[in-house]
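Fresh eyes needed here. Have a critical look at this protein's tokenised backbone.
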Amino acid sequence: MEHPLTFASLLFGEVEPQKGYFNKIIDPVPILYSGVVAVVLIGLIVAFQLKLKKSKTTLIPSPHFNLFNFFEVLLDIFAGYLRELLGKDWKRYVPILLSLWVVILFSNFLGLIPYFEPPTSNLNTNVAMAIVVFFATQYYGFRAHGIKYLKQFVGPVLWLAPLMIPIELIGHLARVLSLSVRLFGNMFADHTLVAIFLILAAPFVPVAFMTLGILVSVVQAFIFSILSVVYFSIAISEEH
């Protein structure tokens, strides 16, 4: 796929699209932008840890919105959904689910910066995260029910197993496709739309589209994470 003029194209140079940047398989562009997001998040986490150490010396929270309050709001919003869908052990699932949300959110926001692309506008990035969700779902299912977790693939009666097993397997694998394509399609379209209006219009004209881009970025990150919560809740539910 040919890349437009971006930070990555300036760094790696323009080459023939069918040959890729380094070889026919590896495209460093989404890897580069994912690395940028990782560096930003690591910096925020370090700053958060320093802020957390300072907050232990005082019981009065800051009246201004800061990094500590930002992460607190994120966790509070997400914790409400986790408590409702995952029950009393909801804290066990916070690391992976909150990590997915934050990574996708900041990846989407990167596409709103001129000459940058969101890593989530590349299908490979999204498939990698969806595969993590797929294996995590199976892990939590086996952890909650043991070998009995396989009953959901067999169906209500044993003689339906030859029919139900392929259907259930296809349904579980389709979750990877659903998570990946939904996020890819929305972010690719959003990034393309914002980029076009940034090129054709004056710098201050596309404000409405930038605002729409922020909304789409937040919603798509939220949808990916909430669907992951739903898949986890189905895997650990007692109905199986």
Observations:
- Residues 64-236 form one domain.
- Residues 22 and 28 are 8 Å apart (CA to CA).
- The chain has one domain: 64-236.
- DSSP finds eight helices and no strands in the chain.
